[in-house]
From TrEMBL:
This is Glycosyltransferase family 4 protein. Residues 145-312 form the Glycosyl transferase family domain. Keywords: Transferase. GO terms for molecular function: glycosyltransferase activity. The lineage of its organism: Bacteria, Pseudomonadati, Bacteroidota, Cytophagia, Cytophagales. The keyword Transferase applies. It holds the Pfam family Glycos_transf_1.
């Protein structure tokens, strides 16, 4: 919130009238009225109207209800879509209907996202621009923090992953991948590190780890305020997601010269990896991914080449200074249209 406030006046919108019918809905609305919430939003509307807003940039699929509230501004809307179908469905059909109702133009973060909007939601291709995700280029010093914190041997080969511990992100598949590689002769040299929330609430993940005897080699670090030093200790990065639009964590690892491995048919990352920044293996084919990891473990020249390619591509194509101006161009295009009206 503070970062937004440094850039511009910032307002917090809390949905005042949930779509609850009957006595419960009436009770909630009366309580909100008692708290003075309607008058707050009336004042907010007046303040926004006074600012002569001509264009709304809506960041994310979950902004439909907010756009409905802002419809009194009667202006163009550019919606930046970072989600695929699971994310779209999670936000509900009503949200999507409102987003489509008010959006004039869409920005998709990958070809996969663009194709999904066209094929599953009948959004015309002519109103969708493709602008890939981007991250700032930063220098990260080598750190032994990961090895020291979790007592990992310095000689270990680190297979890294990151994100929330859930089925979409494929946290369960990390365990199967560790099992597959542990069955090979060099399995004890490999450690599998997941940077993200710990799986205590998913006890079945922990049960699988212990039942397979992988508790030494599979580590969930928990959330880290700055994960980049942990990423920098990886040898390779695996994206195990069943669906992921164009995850920033892959770009962050690419900038650290880490080869990226992912599944096909899983979202946008195959568009980045291609055949020069890592490996794209068949969807959910754990054996194929394990084979590629072992290949990289035994071929440091290949690992370095793919990692350097990943860094170069991320720097050249996904640097914030390269990609962000493309979004500004789209915004300026609509601003210029407003001037000519």
């Amino acid at each position: 919130m503070d970062e937004f406030k440094e850039l511009a006046p910032t307002y917090v919108y809390q949905f005042p009238y949930p779509s609850v019918d009957g006595f419960k809905g009436k009770l909630i609305r009366n309580w909100n009225t008692y708290l003075g919430i309607p008058s707050y939003y009336k004042n907010l509307k007046n303040e926004l109207l006074a600012q002569n807003v001509g264009l709304i940039y809506a960041n994310g699929i979950g902004t439909g209800v907010l756009l409905d509230f802002l419809s009194f501004l009667n202006c163009k809307v550019i919606s930046h879509i970072h989600e695929l179908e699971i994310g779209i469905q999670a936000n509900g059909s009503n949200n999507l209907a409102l987003l489509k109702k008010y959006t004039s133009h869409y920005i998709a973060v990958s070809k996969a996202v663009k194709h999904n909007l066209i094929s599953k939601h009948t959004i015309p291709e002519k109103v969708i621009s493709l602008v890939y995700e981007f991250v700032p280029v930063v220098e990260v010093e080598k750190s032994r923090q990961l090895f020291q914190e979790f007592e990992i041997p310095e000689t270990a080969f680190i297979i890294g992953a990151a994100g929330s511990v859930d089925i979409r992100k494929g946290a369960d598949l990390l365990i199967l991948l560790a099992k597959e590689i542990a069955e090979k002769d060099n399995g004890n040299l490999c450690y599998f590190i997941w940077v993200g929330n710990k799986p205590e609430e998913h006890s079945y993940f922990l049960q699988d780890i212990y039942k397979l005897g992988l508790e030494k080699n599979v580590v969930f670090t928990g959330l880290k305020k700055n994960p980049l030093p942990y990423f920098n200790s990886f040898d390779v990065f695996v994206l195990l997601s069943r669906e992921d639009p164009y995850p920033l964590v892959c770009l962050e690892n690419a900038l650290l010269s880490k080869p990226i491995l992912c599944f096909d048919q899983s979202g946008g990352m195959p568009e980045f990896v291609e055949n020069d920044c890592g490996f794209v293996v068949p969807y959910l084919d754990i054996k194929a991914m394990a084979a590629k990891i072992i290949e990289l473990q035994s071929n440091s020249v290949l690992k370095t080449r793919l990692g350097n390619n990943a860094r170069r591509k991320a720097t050249d194509q996904h640097n914030v200074h390269v990609a962000a101006p493309k979004i500004l161009d789209i915004i300026y295009q609509y601003c210029n249209e407003l001037k000519t009206q």
